[in-house]
Specification:
Helix content of chain B: 40-55%
CATH architecture of the largest domain in chain B: Orthogonal Bundle
Oligomer: heterodimer
Radius of gyration of chain B: 23 Å
Strand content of chain B: 15-25%
CATH class of the largest domain in chain A: Alpha Beta
Largest interface: A-B, 68 and 72 residues
Number of domains of chain B: 2
CATH topology of the largest domain in chain B: Cytochrome-c3 Hydrogenase, chain B
Number of strands of chain A: 13
Strand order of the largest sheet of chain A: 8-7-9-11-13
CATH architecture of the largest domain in chain A: 3-Layer(aba) Sandwich
Chain lengths: ~300, ~525
């Protein structure tokens, strides 16, 4: 008893104050890949080394020239950084707060006119700003958020993940992230839950269990898809044994990319889903410079 | 290739006994003995290796070689610890008559793996005590996904949810408690059916493979470099160990070796993986008997390791670090210094945690004599890793078959014979103390030089075995290469697949409320099992 008290007092408070302060991630951490769209000379090497097809392109003849649509899909990205190894126009940042309300917000598509050798001649269309889409998503969710109020009960469902996401979700209950400080609890049954936190890919053997769990969750309810596999099927994609991302089986409200997303990224996504991100919190589209400014302020 | 003398004498004895029916095939490594045997010899060979040579059935798997050889091949992989070698017996199964006799009666460890072959290759099992489906659940149509004529992207009819028929346990006052696949905690999917009379568990039936993702088929559909990332996703908590086991296999097939510095860095990462998992498990065992304070300290410590992982490799689970021929990121002097400082500091804190748990007599009372797995049952089921070492199986690939840098460091392997939850926790605790020593020794003698050996296209039609002692136990990857830098087959063997049946044995006679802690003390990977 005394030993327990002694150690607790000795340890003190270890809980992060995220999201009021920036995420405590290493400068070496691999988060969102940043592409210099203007200067990008060729998408092919990066697409060739990408193990999940997060960088993909389609070439189409338009008139006498050929144009290329290149997509960077953060919902498929496993943040291995192999693209950045082969392509100087790609840089891995440590930005981990990537959650989005719409699947399309995670896709960034640019269009290039091509040279004869297949390299990029010039950028025709840069990826659009996704904020407008997000506004729509936010409005759609506003009514749900008002019902759920300040307390949220989460049921986690592993629909076939590799257990990497589970490990990080566990971390939310550690004293370091302590999700209960937001009034958010993990509950034992979907019948007690407001939100399903689902990891994927949804396997064929788990499909029915996921549907039943969803049906058992009272409305209004939120569904958050976690990790590259939850968002898109990840490296497993769709095959004879998996249905792909969570949204191929049940409707999804928020997508949290990552392989696995770290506890900051998970918190960011969960708070985004319930509209409780503080206004000054680091946002998805913040550049590094803004983040540093924010940290110094 | 020159065979090890110990294996050569085994080969001579076997040749004397079985004559020309047994053929010796060239093996890629001196510590591997490849044998070709007719199907009728499989049973006799398996029991000979198991009983006479005290071998351990490390894996049973099949391969569709109908195109080239008009047959399926079934492989039995034995690890002969005393002889410091592996034996791989290849048995042809005629393509037009896909049937085989089960060896499970002689070698119980084959049980699930044989059923898996039946499901995935459509090779009918005879003489198996429980030949029902396992990987493909009851509603699956008659498909055999690992046959070459089955396409990875085959679209199957939607799930209909045919009910699985569990074995019935009857008697006065006996009732069933079904649990899962969606559990109360944040854990992976699996179904447990307890048959209980009052509190004590009479019988536990496991139904797994909810997380079957077609991984082995996927390996055959990706270029080899991409497969490293897939290996990282077999079991998230063993990302690095699986990736390195796969890299070992490919490197052996290509005839290259990672440079010394890379092997040392791999060893550091393997130990970091052991560190965060073991400390997390110790905490989780405590929380399952109500000692939450210890769990919170353990979670805090685990988080520290995960952050160190991120600082060193860019990912908290060490993903993206492994690559064919070495590792992707070097550690500079500052990082290494920080790592040693961290280990010193972590050891102090871990000592505190150990003391905290020791002072709590209630915890010890709950853990001792709970969930006992006897050495005999452990041996029959081929239980490996932490669970094996707590149940009298004094074995560790790092010592018996040192891979990477383990031949350069000194460490001891803790082992006990009591086989209860307490001992499985103590094995983890002692291994952590050894890990601290290993990390310090590796950093102390870290060789200079490159961190990658260049690897070109891997030659086709090579076979190779890769293995790693992960934190949970031994991981095997066996590959058969194909033209165009691809794989014809990749067999993945996570220790969990072997160890799950032990849970049914260990829980028998225990009370249902102790199930979480018994389960946690094994902490098996569902995804690694189901793939």
């Amino acid at each position: 008893m005394f030993e327990t008290l002694r150690q607790s007092l000795k340890t003190g408070v270890v809980t992060t104050s995220y999201p009021t302060t920036p995420a405590e991630v290493s400068s070496r951490a691999r988060g969102r890949p940043e592409i210099d769209w203007e200067q990008w000379k060729d998408a092919r090497p990066a697409a060739a080394v990408c193990p999940t097809g997060a960088i993909e392109f389609v070439d189409e003849p338009t008139g006498r020239t050929v144009s290329r649509n290149v997509t960077l899909d953060l919902g498929k990205c496993i943040f291995c950084g192999l693209c950045a190894d082969v392509d100087p126009a790609i840089r891995m940042t440590n930005v981990c707060e990537l959650a989005a309300c719409l699947r399309d917000e995670l896709r960034h598509t640019a269009q290039y006119r091509l040279n004869d050798d297949g390299t990029h001649h010039r950028l025709l269309e840069a990826p659009g700003k996704p904020e407008t889409l997000e506004t729509v998503g936010r409005q759609l969710r506003a009514s749900i958020q008002s019902v759920l109020g300040r307390s949220l009960h989460i049921r986690q469902v592993d629909a076939g993940s590799c257990n990497g996401c589970e490990m990080e979700i566990h971390g939310l209950n550690s004293p370091v992230y302590d999700i209960e400080r937001f009034g958010i609890h993990f509950v034992v049954s979907p019948r007690h839950a407001d939100m399903l936190l689902v990891t994927g890919p949804v396997t064929r053997n788990m499909e029915l269990a996921l549907r039943k769990t969803h049906d058992a969750t009272p409305e209004p309810r939120l569904v958050v898809a976690v990790g590259a596999c939850g968002c898109s099927g990840g490296i497993f994609g769709r095959n004879y044994a998996t249905c792909g991302g969570v949204d191929s089986v049940i409707p999804v409200d928020v997508y949290i990319p990552g392989c696995p997303p770290n506890p900051h990224a998970l918190l960011h996504g969960i708070l985004l889903a319930i509209g409780r991100l503080p206004p000054n919190a680091p946002r998805r589209n913040d550049s590094d410079a803004q983040r540093i400014k924010h940290a110094l302020a | 290739m020159n065979l090890l003398p110990s294996l050569r004498s085994i080969l001579e004895e076997l040749t004397q006994r079985f004559g020309t029916q047994l053929q010796h095939a060239p093996a890629p490594q001196p510590d591997e003995l490849y044998l070709h045997a007719p199907p009728e010899l499989a049973g006799a060979l398996c029991s000979t290796f198991y009983k006479k040579y005290h071998g351990r059935l490390a894996a049973v798997f099949a391969e569709d070689a109908r195109a080239a050889e008009h047959a399926f091949f079934v492989y039995y992989l034995y690890a002969l610890d005393a002889a410091h070698g592996f034996v791989l017996v290849r048995v042809p199964i005629p393509a037009d008559k896909p049937e085989m006799n089960s060896v499970t009666d002689a070698v119980p460890a084959a049980n699930w793996q044989e059923r898996e072959i039946q499901d995935l290759f459509g090779i009918k099992l005879f003489g198996h005590p429980n030949p029902r489906r396992c990987v493909l659940h009851d509603d699956w149509p008659e498909v055999y996904p690992l046959r070459k004529d089955f396409d990875l992207h085959t679209k199957l009819p939607p799930f209909t949810g045919v009910r699985h028929k569990f074995r019935e346990v009857e008697g006065e006052g006996v009732f069933q408690v079904p649990v899962g696949p969606v559990h109360a905690g944040i854990i992976e999917p699996g179904h447990f059916l307890f048959s209980v009379a009052g509190e004590p568990v009479l019988y536990l039936q496991l139904r797994m493979f909810y997380a079957h993702k077609g991984v082995e088929k996927l390996f055959e559909n990706l270029p080899i470099p991409h497969c490293v990332r897939l290996a990282e996703s077999i079991s998230g908590d063993s990302s690095f160990a699986h990736a390195i086991a796969f890299c070992h296999a490919v490197e052996r097939a290509a005839g290259i070796e990672a440079p010394a510095r890379a092997r040392a860095l791999r060893t550091l990462c393997l130990e970091l993986e052991r560190l965060y998992n073991h400390v997390g498990d110790i905490g989780a065992i405590c929380t399952d008997v109500g000692f939450v304070t210890a769990h919170m300290h353990a979670m805090r410590l685990k988080e520290r390791v995960l952050r160190v992982n991120e600082e060193l490799t860019g990912n908290r689970l060490l993903r993206g670090m492994a690559c064919l021929g070495g590792v992707r990121f070097d550690f500079d002097a500052d990082q290494l210094r920080a790592l040693v400082t961290f280990v010193d500091d972590f050891e102090k804190e871990f000592n505190d945690l150990v003391e905290l748990i020791r002072c709590n007599s209630g915890t010890r009372e709950r853990l001792e004599t709970t969930g006992v797995l006897t050495p005999q049952i452990a041996r029959d089921l081929g239980i490996v890793g932490i669970a094996g070492r707590a149940s009298g199986f004094d074995h560790d690939l790092r010592r018996e078959f040192p891979h990477d840098f383990y031949d350069q460091v000194r460490f001891t392997v803790p082992f006990f014979t009591e086989g209860d939850v307490q001992r499985r926790m103590v094995v983890r605790r002692e291994e952590l103390f050894q890990s601290f020593g290993i990390i310090r020794q590796v950093v102390g003698k870290l060789p200079a030089g490159p961190i990658q050996t260049k690897i070109g296209e891997v030659p086709p039609d090579c076979v190779a075995l890769g293995f790693v002692e992960g934190w949970r136990g031994e991981i095997f990857h066996w590959i058969h290469t194909a033209p165009g830098n691809r794989l014809a087959r990749c067999k993945v063997k996570d220790p969990s697949l072997q160890n799950w049946p032990a849970l049914s044995e260990a829980i028998m006679g225990n009370i249902v409320p102790d199930f979480p802690v018994v389960n946690k003390s094994f902490n098996l990977s569902y995804s690694g099992t189901d793939r």
